[in-house]
Amino acid sequence: MVSSAGEELGGWSHWHSPDRPLRLGVSTCLLGENVRFDSGHARDGFVVDTLGQWFEYVPVCPEVEIGMGTPRPSIRLVDEGQGMRLVAPSTGEDFTERMTGFAEEKVTELMELDLDGYILKKSSPSCGLERIRVYTSGMPARRNASGVFAAKLMERWPALPVEEEGRLNDHGLRENFIERVFGRNRWRGLVAGGLTRRRLIEFHTAHKLLLRAHNETAYRRLGKLVGSVGTIEDGELFRAYEIEFQAALSTKPTNKKHVNVLQHAMGYLKTLLDPVEKREILAAVEEYRQGLLPLVVPLTLLRYNIRRHGVEYLAGQLYFDPHPRELMLRNHA
Questions:
Q1: What share of the chain has pLDDT > 70, as a percent?
Q2: Do 302 and 320 touch, CB atoms closer than 8 A?
Q3: Into how many domains does the chain fold?
Q4: Residue 64 covered by a domain
Q5: Is residue 5 in a domain?
Q6: What pLDDT is stored for residue 9 in this prediction?
Q7: Torsions phi, psi of 204, nearest 5?
Q8: Taking Cα atoms as reference points, which of 17, 56, 8 lies closest to residue 315?
């Protein structure tokens, strides 16, 4: 999983250690296991065949793990004015306490495994990320809840990148999630190697352009945090940085933000390029802005010139190589 280009530019593989595999929690049914209520599965090709080449999975099926068995009655979220309940409508059995207790214990167990992210099953009353149906007698179902296990996971572990497989069909959401996962893995490596103020500054510096592509305001907040080194207790500083870092990356980049970052990077090259080279890169940036070219085109031109002219600051920016290029995440106009 080492990319020579990534090493040359100080990209993702420069920060990644084979001894620290990318480890994701995942709803078991997405891996093709027959654990659904009807004894079927929900195998997801992207999760298994593409991401599976890069990630180590920790499968979890809350319903099976609380002893509901396969096959089993379907369950749903119900709210009759006394709080949300998880029940099987065909039998009336209430699984709320059992699922809540399991979720509490399981999330603790997963936190000890130090995951890099989690992929949940959409529409599930236990695992769904959002817009799960909630039923109330005599009223149309509303879509405003998370599954019981998913809600506990996000409550206990707010810095963990979490997504559901249905949303990964959106190219932008897919790239955003993968960037967060690799960012989380880099943070784990930083902590494992002994987190110090100096190493935090190095980490932040390498992520500057990537953060600006996601959230300029959060980037500035993180800069102030790093600038407060020496005035805040180390543990508090590192905890605050981790939460703010993942919150920044959770903001989906936009075409406009990418253009701003590309133009900012051009500023470091403007005295090094001849007029023809400048026009070529600026034309690619403009065509990307118009939606005529994918992001990978201006990035490739910039990467080439960063290497050719030895621009050290840009060479160390993860923005140009935040994850394996084989995933083709930036190849969509």
A1: 97
A2: yes
A3: 2
A4: yes
A5: no
A6: 58
A7: -65, -40
A8: 8
Contact predicate 119/180, CB 8 Å = no
Q: Could you tell me if residue 228 is inside a domain?
A: yes
Mean pLDDT for the stretch of residues 219-223: 96
* pLDDT recorded at residue 241: 95
pLDDT tens digits, one per residue of 70-115: 999 999 999 988 889 999 999 999 999 999 999 999 999 999 999 9
Give the structural domain span for 75: 20-169
pLDDT (0 to 100) of residue 139: 84
If asked whether residues 91 and 155 sit together in one domain, one would say yes
Strand partners, 78: 85, 135
- Taken in order 82, 86, 87, 89, is the CA torsion positive or negative? positive
Please give the pLDDT value at position 234: 87
Read off the tokens for 38: 């009807």
**Residue range 305-313: mean pLDDT, rounded:** 95
- Owner of token pair 């969509």: 332
- CA nearest neighbour of 106 among 145, 158, 62: 62
> Is the residue at 13 inside a domain?
no
Q: What does the block give as tokens for 137?
A: 């007698």
The secondary structure of the chain, three-state, reads CCCHHHHHCCCHHHHCCCCCCEEEEEEHHHHCCCCCCCCCCCCCHHHHHHHHHCEEEEEECHHHHCCCCCCCCCCEEEECCCCEEEECCCCCCECHHHHHHHHHHHHHHHHHHCCCEEEECCCCCCCCCCCEEEEECCEEEEEEECCHHHHHHHHHCCCCCEEECCHHHCHHHHHHHHHHHHHHHHHHHHHHCCCCHHHHHHHHHHCHHHHHHHCHHHHHHHHHHHHCECCECHHHHHHHHHHHHHHHHCCCCCHHHHHHHHHHHHCCCCCCCCHHHHHHHHHHHHHHHCCCCCCHHHHHHHHHHHHHHCCHHHHCCHHHCCCCHHHCCCCCC
Gap between the Cα atoms of 5 and 2, Å rounded: 9
Encoded amino acid at 29, one letter: C
Residue 4 scores a pLDDT above 50: no
The position carrying tokens 């903001």 is: 251
